[in-house]
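Q: My collaborator sent me two sequences in one message, no labels, and asked for predicted structures for both. Can we handle them in order? The first one she listed is below.
A: Yes, handling them in the order given. First sequence, followed by its C-alpha cells:
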Amino acid sequence: NSRASQQLFGVDTAVQSFSRRVKDRENTRRMAAAAGGVAMRVLRGVRLTLGIVATLLITVAVSAVSMVLALLGLRRWANYGTPLWAWLTSHIAYPLVGIRYVVEDQVSATLDPRRPVLLLSNHPRSLEAVAQCDMLRQLFAPARMILGVMKRELMYTPLGIGLWAMGTVPIDRTAGQATIDRIAAWAKSLPDKAPAIILYPDGTRGSAARRQAMCEKLVKKTLEGGDDGNSSSNSSKKAALDEDVARIRRVCATTMPPMAGGCLTLLKALPGVQVVLVTSSNSHGLSSIPELVRNPAPTVRIHVKKVVTLPQETVALQRELMRLWDEEICPDLQVKERAQ
C-alpha cells in the first residue's frame, strides 16, 4: 500500500509539474503576443504619423504653387495641381502608411472626350480620398480639368485652399437656393467645356444618429408627398410608397442618403453631360486614425461602375438617386472584407 501510495503521489506530482509547465508556456505565449501587438501598434502609429506629415507637406507645397498660378489668371495650369497632388500622395503617403488601392474601371474608355463627365460617388472616408483623386488623374488627366464641389468649411484647411485655387467650388450647404445658383454659375464659367467633375450627393459620411434623423425626415416627406387625399389613388400608390420608404431605410442604415439639388443643377448647367457612378470603399471599413493604428492597413477600392441616365425633374431624380444608392452603392459599402 505504501509503495502504491508513493507511486500515485509521484504520478500526481508529475501531472502537476506538467500542468505548470503548460501554463507557463501559455502565459509566455500570451505575453509575447501582447508585446507583439503593442509593437505593431507603435509601428503603425509611426508609419501613420509619417504619412500624415508627408500628406501635409505635399498639400502645402502644391496648394502654394496652384494659388500663385490662379492669382496670375492661369486657371487651367492651376488645375494641374490636382493630378500632381494625387500622384504624390498616392506614391508617397500611401506606401508610408501601408495602404494599397485598386481602381476598377469599366466605363471610361466608352466616354465621349468632347462632352463633360459628372461622377457621382458616395462620400469617401479620409483614407479613401487620395485613391479617388488618383483615379481621376489616371482616367481623365491631363485631357480634362479635374474639379469638384466641396463644403465651405474646407476653406479653413490647406487642402481646401489648394482645391479652390485648382478650380473646385466651395459651397455653403445651408444656403439653399443661393448655393444652387453658385454651383450653376461656376459650372457655366469653366474654361474647360468637357471637364471631369466629381460630386457627392450624400454630402457627408454622417454618424448613425445623423443618418437616422435624416431617414425619419425623408420618410415623413415621402409619405406626405404621396398622400393626395384620394383614397383610390392612395390605394394604388401604396405599394410604390412602401418600396420608397423601405429603400430610404435601407440606404440610411449604411450611409447618408443622396440629395438631388446639386446633381440636378449640374445636369442642367452642363449640356450633354455624361453621368458615371463611382463607389469608394476599403477592405476593413476603417474611417478614423485610431482605427488605422489598431488594425492592419486596408486596401482601398475605387469602382467606376457604370454610365447612368438621370431625369431632370426633382422628384424623379431624387427617387432614381435613392435607387442607385440602394442597388449599387450600399452593397459595396456593406462588404467589409474582400478577397484581394
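Q: And the one she listed second?
A: Here it is, processed independently of the first:
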Amino acid sequence: ARAPRARARPGNGPADARGEPARHGQPALAVALAADPLPGTRRRQAARRRALRRIRARPVRERGPLAQQPGGGGGGGYRAYTIDLLGYGYSSKPAPTGPEAAVISGETNRDFSQMPIVDLGTSDGGTRAGVAVEQVHPVAGSCYNFFTWSEQLADFIEQVVCAPSATLVCNSIGSISGLQAAVDRPELVDGVFIVNPNFRELHTAEVPAFIRPLVVPLVSGVQALLRERGHGLFKSLANADAVRQILKEPYFDANTVTDELVEVLLAPLLVEGSADVVFDTLSYSAGPLPEQLLQAASLAQTPVWICYGEKDPWTPAARGKLFFVIIALLKSPDLQPDGVRA
C-alpha cells in the first residue's frame, strides 16, 4: 500500500496486534477487522470487535520517508506491505459458516435486492450485453467473499497503515478485492494496480444463458460434494509434486519454479482449516466481477492500471485488452472504442 507521509510508529516497523513494534523484515501481525466502514447495526459492530481476527502482513520495503510526497521528486520512499487476507496464507481461517462467520462476513447488512446488470467480456475479446451478476455467496453466511476482503483492506489502511489513503497493488483474484475496496471506500484508495486480472470463469454469469439451467445445478452439486467429502482429495493434492506441476502452467520459464517457491505456496495449504477455505472459495460462483466494478460510478475518479502477460494461460489477453477500453471510455466518454490501444 502506498501512503502519504504519516507519523512513524516507534521501532523499525509497524506494530503487531498487541501494539508492539515488529522487528524489521519480520512478519507483523495486524488487527484488521475492528471497524465497520459500511452502515450496520450496533450489534454487528460490537460483535465484529469481539471477533477480531489477525491477518499477517509482511513489510516488504521500508526506506527513507514513509511514503513519496506528491511533487517531491524521486527521493521519496515507500512503506509497502504484502497482506494475507482472511483465509489466505498464514492468516486466520475460521469456519466458512456459523455465528462467527456471519458476524465477520462483508455481505452482512448490504443491500442485494437489485442484481447488477452489466456488460461483460469474453475470452476472445467479444462482449456480452446486459448480463445479470449474482452477488450473494451461494453458501449462505460464508465469510469468504469479496465484500469481507474489501472491508479488511479498508480497515488495514485506516488502522495499520494509519494514513489517509493508499495505493493497492493486486494480483489475480486479489484484483477484485482491491477494486471492491476502491468502490466501497474511494476516499481511502489512491489507485488500483492490477497484475494479471482474474475473470472468475466459475461465476454463474460466465455460463451462457441458454445452458445455465442445466450447468449451474450440476456445478453446484459438485461443489457441495467437494465441501462435504473432498478433504481426502485435497490431502492427496497438497504436496510438493502436485504444486510444482500446477505452477509450471502459468510460469513461462519452468526453471523459475524452484523448491523455495513450491514450499512458500505449499506450506500455508497445510495449515488447519485450509481445505475448508479452498472448497468454500471454489463454491463462490457469485459476487462482483472485474468489468462490473470498473463500471461503478464511485470508481470514476480512481486511477486503475492493468498489466498482464500476452501468453499467460490464466488471463485471456483478448479479454484483458477490454479493460483498457472500459477504463478509457469511462475516463473520456467522448473517446471512440476504436481509438483505444492496449
